């Protein structure tokens, strides 16, 4: 009976249930990607005219012929930003997880809640929280504290812009990393750490020789995840420094955004995005290759 | 090492896992903590290991109070029910781990690993990880890891329960022999009375957090202190019948419906004061004799041949009796048979306090 139903209504049911979401994905995901790819080969500007100019945008981007003097700086910024935020997230997440799960289990919930707050906030709030804290006038949080104790105010966002955006993104990443690491630590059987304790290991040695090796998979996963996330991130940079002062924190995707939606150079901006998509896909393939997709997507990351 | 548990109580919120436990474990002794799950035996073991702090009472190693000594400084070796081998290390590295932490020089370390591996017959599996070993091999590696540091005390938490039945019998004998050869004080937690009986020098039976009795396997089997120990020790377990003791004329009779059992003369003297009390009669399956040629109200319910003997379940008014009969006995389910008890083999318990009032040979 069920087989009959399945046969008769198979295609119709598939179309009925999958159709709407498939249409949405195609309309809002595939179509824009294809459009972006096409636009990257035009000189499209404010007038929205499709003037195909071949590889002109890419030539400019790579500094062949008329070069864009900002590209090397943006490339360096992107690398510094990504490689700076990554250890903040992974190491910070590990420290908090190990501390809250092992050293002070009682205080753990409090700690994890505090570090989870950024994830619960709307991005704009999180961004402005940082912008306001490091505001260069005496109304900013840290300057208010400084002037209260008689210290001169500091132009934080001008003197340390990169450190601030790296920390803002890194701290946001901690919330997810910490959640994943804490869950992984919770699945380590208590007998294992007890055995290590009987064997003579101190809390630090248990962490180093037992906990961390068993967290290998979650650590690799979170590193790969956040590597891609930071590479594509621009929201918090835009909210906190806007890429400034003078392109000092301008990262790749923010530059693409500025080109397309501030300077209305759609074609040139699209070329940056296309390149980023290529980098993303290559990185993704690399990660999946290194980890083995099947292993990554199946259960049992903690081999016990 | 001599271990003294002195009036140990361990309370978890509203659960009293161990209540007022006092126990002396002699140097070189093999002591089993025996009881059903939830009886507090594992809590006792983990408290001796130092993972739990006593709520009250103390634990002494060789007369020295160790309540504030962390597990790593107690010089103990421990084998967990799950073996708890480090999954990311080979067998060799698992065994080396405690030695590395103690900064034993490399050469001595390798020698000691080799010795303990040879002793346990696991030289072949040293390069393998736990995931690539059988349960029996994992258990030997766990034992090697516990022994390689030459601990003063060996703690075993249900070490045999994850092995298959055949291997369990092999390991039982090997563990016992190993313990005797090394002369290492060993405390062994188990819920399996056969394991405790076969391996331990002495057994401490725990029930609902309270110590019931401590003694040699023979002691517990022949002279149980109460109903719980009597019912726990021995397979198949002892049969219990609610009876009352009545004086009819000159005789003392244990009575239960149509069943009557006249106490022999020597017992009459000692049990005279129990007349009209509610008692529980305990009969070991091997102490009951079935007489197929007689007829009574007892009916054969089922016969289970075990090869060496046959386990017969007999239905008597209001109860089922397990009887171990000779293997050649010809019995059909449903037939009525007679049954007899050797008068010097009976146990009697107080129905209220469950204390033993009479055990054979007393």
Which structural traits does this protein have?
heterodimer; A: 304 residues; mainly alpha; MetI-like fold; 0% strand; globular; B: 362 residues; alpha+beta; 6-stranded mixed sheet; 6-stranded antiparallel sheet; 21 strands; 25% helix; elongated
What is the residue-mean pLDDT of chain B, rounded to a whole number? 89
Q: Taking Cα atoms only, what radius of gyration of chain A do you get, to the nearest Å? A: 24 Å
Could you spell the SSE succession of chain B in H and E letters? EEEHEEEHHHEHEHEEHHEEEHEEEEEEEE
Number of helices of chain A: 15
Proper CATH architecture of chain A: Orthogonal Bundle
Distance between the termini of chain A: 44 Å
According to DSSP, the number of beta strands of chain B is 21
Contiguous uncertain segments of 5+ residues of chain A: none
Name of the top-level CATH class of chain A: Mainly Alpha
Q: For this entry, what is the oligomeric state of its chains? A: heterodimer
Give the structural class of chain A. Answer: mainly alpha
User: What is the 3D shape of chain A?
Assistant: globular
Largest sheet of chain B: 6 strands, mixed
Largest sheet of chain A: none
Distance between the termini of chain B: 35 Å
Order of helices and strands of chain A: HHHHHHHHHHHHHHH
> Which pair of chains has the greatest number of interface residues, and how are they split between the two chains?
A-B, 20 and 25 residues
CATH H-level homologous superfamily name of chain A = MetI-like
């Amino acid at each position: 009976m069920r087989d009959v139903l399945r046969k008769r209504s198979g295609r119709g049911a598939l179309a009925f249930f999958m159709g709407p979401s498939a249409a949405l994905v195609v309309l809002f995901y595939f179509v824009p990607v294809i459009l972006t790819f096409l636009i990257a080969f035009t000189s499209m500007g404010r007038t929205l005219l499709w003037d195909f100019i071949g590889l002109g945008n890419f030539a400019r981007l790579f500094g062949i012929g008329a070069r864009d003097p900002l590209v090397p700086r943006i490339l360096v910024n992107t690398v510094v930003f990504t490689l700076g935020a990554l250890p903040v997230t992974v190491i910070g997440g590990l420290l908090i997880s190990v501390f809250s799960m092992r050293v002070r289990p009682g205080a753990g919930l409090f700690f994890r809640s505090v570090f989870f707050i950024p994830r619960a906030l709307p991005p704009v709030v999180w961004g402005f929280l940082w912008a306001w804290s490091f505001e260069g006038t005496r109304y900013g949080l840290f300057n208010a504290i400084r002037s209260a104790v008689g210290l001169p105010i500091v132009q934080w966002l001008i003197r340390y812009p990169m450190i601030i955006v790296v920390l803002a993104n890194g701290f946001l990443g901690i919330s997810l990393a910490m959640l994943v690491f804490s869950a992984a630590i919770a699945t380590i059987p208590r007998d294992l750490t007890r055995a290590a304790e009987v064997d003579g290991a101190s809390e630090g040695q248990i962490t180093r020789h037992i906990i961390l090796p068993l967290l290998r998979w979650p650590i690799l996963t979170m590193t790969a995840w956040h590597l891609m996330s930071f590479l594509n991130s621009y929201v918090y940079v835009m909210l906190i420094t806007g890429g400034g002062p003078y392109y000092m924190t301008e990262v790749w995707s923010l530059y693409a955004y500025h080109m397309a939606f501030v300077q209305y150079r759609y074609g040139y901006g699209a070329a940056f995005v296309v390149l980023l998509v290529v980098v993303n896909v290559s990185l993704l393939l690399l990660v999946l290759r290194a980890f083995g997709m099947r292993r990554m997507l199946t259960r049992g990351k903690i081999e016990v | 090492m001599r271990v003294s548990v002195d009036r140990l109580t361990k309370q978890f919120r509203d659960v009293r896992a161990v209540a007022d436990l006092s126990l002396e474990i002699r140097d070189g002794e093999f002591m089993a903590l025996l009881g059903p799950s939830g009886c507090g035996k594992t809590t006792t073991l983990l408290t001796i290991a130092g993972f739990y702090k006593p709520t009250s009472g103390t634990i002494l190693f060789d007369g020295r109070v160790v309540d504030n000594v962390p597990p790593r400084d107690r010089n103990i070796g421990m084998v967990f029910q799950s073996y708890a081998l480090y999954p990311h290390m080979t067998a060799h590295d698992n065994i080396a781990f405690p030695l590395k932490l103690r900064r034993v020089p490399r050469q001595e370390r390798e020698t000691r690993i080799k010795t303990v591996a040879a002793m346990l017959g696991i030289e072949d599996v040293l390069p393998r990880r736990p995931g690539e070993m059988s349960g029996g091999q994992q258990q030997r590696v766990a034992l090697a890891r516990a022994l390689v540091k030459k601990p003063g005390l060996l703690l075993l938490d249900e070490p045999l329960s994850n092995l298959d039945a055949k291997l369990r019998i092999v390991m039982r004998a090997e563990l016992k022999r190993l313990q005797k050869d090394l002369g290492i004080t060993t405390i062994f937690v188990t819920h399996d009375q056969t394991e405790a009986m076969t391996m331990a020098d002495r057994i401490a039976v725990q029930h609902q957090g309270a110590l019931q009795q401590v003694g040699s396997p023979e002691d517990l089997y022949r002279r149980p202190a109460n109903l719980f120990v009597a019912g726990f020790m021995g397979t198949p377990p002892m049969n219990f019948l609610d009876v009352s003791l009545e004086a009819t004329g000159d005789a003392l009779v244990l009575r239960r419906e149509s069943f009557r059992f006249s106490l022999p003369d020597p017992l009459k003297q000692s049990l005279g004061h129990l007349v009209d009390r509610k008692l529980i009669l305990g009969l070991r399956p091997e102490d009951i004799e079935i007489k197929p040629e007689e007829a009574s109200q007892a009916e054969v319910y089922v016969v289970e041949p075990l090869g060496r003997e046959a386990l017969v379940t007999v239905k008597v008014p209001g109860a089922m009796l397990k009887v171990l009969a000779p293997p050649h006995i010809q019995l059909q389910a449903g037939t009525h048979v007679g049954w007899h008890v050797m008068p010097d083999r009976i146990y009697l318990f107080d129905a209220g306090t469950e204390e033993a009032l009479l055990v054979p040979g007393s």
